Amino acid sequence: MADPITAIYVQENDDWTITVSGRGKTLTGRAPGIIAARDSVDQLVDKLGPDAKESTVVHLLNGSALEFTSAYMTARLTRPEPAPLEVPQSSDSAEESAEETDSDPADQASHVPAQKSDEAPVVKPKNKASRRPKAKLTADIGDALSKSSALPAASGTVTVAGGQVSSASA
Questions:
Q1: Which one of 8, 28, 47, 139 has the minimum C-beta count within 10 Å?
Q2: Rounded to an integer, what distance in angstroms lies between the CA atom of residue 122 and that of residue 114?
Q3: What is the CATH number of domain 5-77?
C-alpha cells in the first residue's frame, strides 16, 4: 500500500507557503495564491519520486482537510471583479470633449444639441369615467330569472328557427 503524502498550507499575507512531506522527504515552496499553491503541490509531489504520483495526497490548512477544501473551492468558484468598462472615443469626440473642458460650464448647457424623436407621440388612454358605455343593458336581470323559473320542465327537444324557440314534448 502506498504511503500518504501530506501537503500543509500556511498563509502569509497574500502568499502561501507549502510543505510537502512523504517518502522520507520534505519539500517546500511558495505561491501567490491558494490555487497556485495547489498546483505547486502537484509539482512537488512529482519531485518526490515516480511512484509518488499514485499515492494519496492529503491537503491540510490549519490541520484540517475540510478547511483547505473550503478555502480552495471558495477561491475557485469566486468570480474576479470585472474591470471597469472603458468606451473608446473617436478622434472627433475626443477633440470636442477637450474643447468642452476648456469652456465655462454655463456655456456647455447651451451647446447641448436638441434631441429628435423618431417615435410617434404617446397617446394616453381616456379616463374610464369619460368613456361612453359600449353597450346598454336592455333587460333587467330580475326579469330574466323570474321568466326562467316560470317555464315548465319539458321532456323532449327544443329547436330554434328564425329567432323563434319551440319545444316538442313527448
A1: 139
A2: 19
A3: 3.30.420
Domain limits, the chain: 5-77
**Do residues 19 and 63 touch, judged by C-beta distance below 8 A?**
no
Give me the helices (H) in 2-90, please: 34-48, 65-77
Helix, strand, or coil (residue 15): strand
pTM: 0.46
pLDDT in tens, 6-39: 999 999 888 999 999 988 889 999 999 999 999 9
Write down the residue that cell numbers 394616453 correspond to.
124
- β-strand 15-22 against 164-169: which pairing, if any? unpaired
The CA distance from 30 to 60, in Å, is 15
* Greatest Cα-to-Cα distance within the chain, rounded to the nearest angstrom: 109
Q: Read off the pLDDT of residues 155-167 as tens digits, 9 standing for 90 and up.
A: 556 666 666 666 6
Task: Outline where the chain has alpha helix (H).
Answer: 34-48, 65-77, 91-102, 105-110, 141-150
Position with higher pLDDT, 80 vs 163: 80
Across the beta sheet with 57-61, what order do the strands follow? 25-31, 15-22, 5-12, 57-61
